[in-house]
Design brief:
single chain, mainly beta, Porin, 8-stranded antiparallel barrel, 2 helices, elongated
Amino acid sequence: MMPKQLITYLFLLSSTYAFAQINETGVFLGGSNYIGDIGRTSYIYPNSYAVGGIYKWNMHPHYSIRATYTYSKLTGDDSQSKNSFRKYRDPSLSFTNTLHELAAGIEYHFFKYSLSKIGYTQTPYIIIGASVAKMDINNKDGGNGSIFSYSIPFGLGYKMKLAPNVGIAFETSFRYTFRDDIDGYPFQELDEDGNPPPGENIQINPNNNDWYVFTGITLVYAFGRGGCYTGKF
């Protein structure tokens, strides 16, 4: 392909996507839960609220680029655990973590999707991305302070048209963090006999990093030109 032809092809391709792209902005409403060394061991059991904003750029019928901001609280309490070791651990552990998270990623649609095109107005989808969160931690043993946590969000959902230019989605997304102390209890080095430092008896598993989960709905409003894809996708 000659350079002039290549330039023409790229221009036409970019024009097609510019015409096809559609924007969505809205809110996330739901709950959160923590998975780690304290409290319950269930993977999905929202026990605190989570709210935020979301923006999507639907650059293709099968995928979108998305960015989110989420505010939430994470809590864990041994007294609420069904695990006998945690429930009767001495001392009993608990914490509250307030977080502000920014995340970005890709949303892949299993079916072609467009709020403005008949027949393409609902689909299951999966999410993967990256995020950073500022966390303010408070626990009864004094492990208080602020930290930054990086994580890999991934999850799944189902979305559909609710009204003209309005969409609704139900989704759950997991955050695998690269820390084991978002509950405020870092792993304590044991001595050669496997005992904690003198005066301390907090037993934390050093082999598993912490997780947290968001579960809820998104409501979005679509704007911009969309629904006119010329390629065979």
